[in-house]
Write a structure and sequence with these properties.
InterPro entries: DHOase, DHOase/Allantoinase_Hydrolase, DHOase_cat, Dihydroorotase_CS, Metal-dep_hydrolase_composite, Metal_Hydrolase. This protein has 420 residues and is of the alpha/beta class. 29% of the residues lie in helices and 22% in strands. Strands 1, 2, 3, 4, 5, 16, 17, 18 and 19 form a nine-stranded mixed sheet that branches. The chain has a five-stranded parallel sheet with strand order 9-10-13-14-15. A three-stranded parallel sheet has the order 6-7-8. The structure holds N-carbamoyl-L-aspartate.
Amino acid sequence: MAYLLKGVSILGAAPTDLAIVDGVISDKAPDDAQVIDATGLVALPGLVDVHTHLREPGREDAETVETGSRAAALGGYTAVCSMANTSPVADTAGVVEQVWRLGREAGLVDVQPIGAVTIGLAGKQLAELGAMADSAANVRIFSDDGFCVADPRLMRRALEYVKAFDGVIAQHAEEPRLTEGAQMHEGEVSTRLGLTGWPAVAEEAIIARDVLLAEHVGSRLHVCHVSTAGSVEVLRQAKARGVRVTAEVTPHHLLLTDELAAGYDPVFKVNPPLRTRNDVEALRQALLDGVIDVVATDHAPHAVQDKECEWSYARPGMLGLETALPIVLSVFGEKWDLIADRMSIAPARIAGLTGHGGDLSAGTPANITLVDPSARWVVDPAELASRSRNTPYAGMNLPGRIVATFLRGEATVLDGKAVK
Ligand SMILES: NC(=O)N[C@@H](CC(=O)O)C(=O)O
């Protein structure tokens, strides 16, 4: 199938026509191309998420590779990196290949498995990083996300190991001794509510340690879901020194604050926790400055029984894939070059996903997101494609509708609906 996007604006530029032929972007469309009136629509390189929880294998009641892939496509994504905290954990070549194969079968986005750093995410012994790298899944990002690789010697070894194949360790930065029993951000609100706090320094201390380790080893570190103003300063200094560190921020940390915990609605419980207005402002500025490289969703679907319960029993995590671009648009406005870089180009580079994060020039793979920036919509959890319902944005009126998504020239979303 060939397509002709008529009158489309590429990253906000003057309207033009964009043709998709045989999976690549082309100067000219054949006569039988399906014409899409793209007047008022903006084309972006397909979005890439470096941090998605797909829950398969193990918690298919919360999400599967297929339902998560569909949610991703509807959110404008053409590739997602799936986190290793599944059951069994993605700590062997067998499990990462299983996830990779399920992604291919679903065929809605490229699913790039992330491998665990340590066996069972237990933080005791390195997993078989090399075997996962050499597998069909071609793993390049390793993470114990959900848990911090707290042991500095293991962290050093992991950084040394992946250096051989230009891999990267994605750290969930949380000093566990400082967050025992933590329920929310430690600050004025936690004091008022009487909930045990998760202090900012628990994140900042690990990032500070890890940038020094990465510098010492000369290896690549990626910091997951940065949430505090202090973390931004540590990263700023490390980058200025030339440390090979990249970092992500989630849409929810760019918008929401710890005040939301006051209603004790566990939909706002997340790890790291929602922080203060001051942190939100610092994270926004860091994304603009490039101190934070990418927006990553940390899409964390949870089954109803794991979320709709007392705050202290609820699992941390929020849905993100179907709302990420609208949230970023609502925070930053139509800064298309920024959005393309932080949500597609830079994440594709970090994950080593060639073919994604392109410049939409002729001859490049047709991984494209088509957005209507003027369309507003109200988030209805029941309408989301994710198998779970734990969106913190229910009832919010957001700008930006994903009209179409193309994966190597195949439409996965058309007219705002999933094609399969
Ligand atoms: N980000 C979250 O709040 N949850 C993550 C794991 C984690 O980081 O705790 C999940 O897998 O649910």
